[in-house]
Specification:
The protein is built from 10 helices and no strands. The protein is an all-alpha fold and 192 residues long. The protein has 2 domains: 1-44, Arc Repressor Mutant, subunit A; 51-190, Tetracycline Repressor, domain 2 (Orthogonal Bundle), CATH 1.10.357.
Amino acid sequence: MTKRERILKAATRLFAEYSYDAVGIREIANEADVNSAMISYYYGGKGGLHKEVFSRFVELVLDVSREQLGKAANSHELCDAMGRAFLTCARRNREVFMVGLRSLNRDLEWLREEQERIQRETEEYVTRFLVRTGHKEKMPHTRRLIFGAVMGMLFSDYLLGGGANINDDELLKEYAETIIRILQHGLPSLAE
């Protein structure tokens, strides 16, 4: 693993465990076993590391959204496949998701740009899904609201419960089934 990769891995782990604000450059450097100047060299500082971790989160979210919205045949199938795909992706990339989800609530200009990108691209994927499946919105702004609602439901466990359900193999199945059922009954009611 290169120094750059070690720094990113250390920062991701520390930001996920303690939060961005609670972690300093020295802690990241110690965890990565590098000189703190290397962080500035590779990332321009702690803020650059935050951007890099969040960028990875954005790409994971957009990849899952694009794939699932691109292949689902109907709303019920979409809820099931997307719910399971997001939960699987989040478990494989737990620390990136923890940092990304926490970051969504921060008020920074570069984050707003990335949030707008997520919103714009997922709304486009939802629009394509609706057109492809012959559905129409029942209420204005449904396309814009669906993604936020789905993400909020799926990841409320990380944000409110520290991932107790998502990180437990036995509880995950029940958690996934519960969330997917709620989505399957609620989401189809938004489009006809």
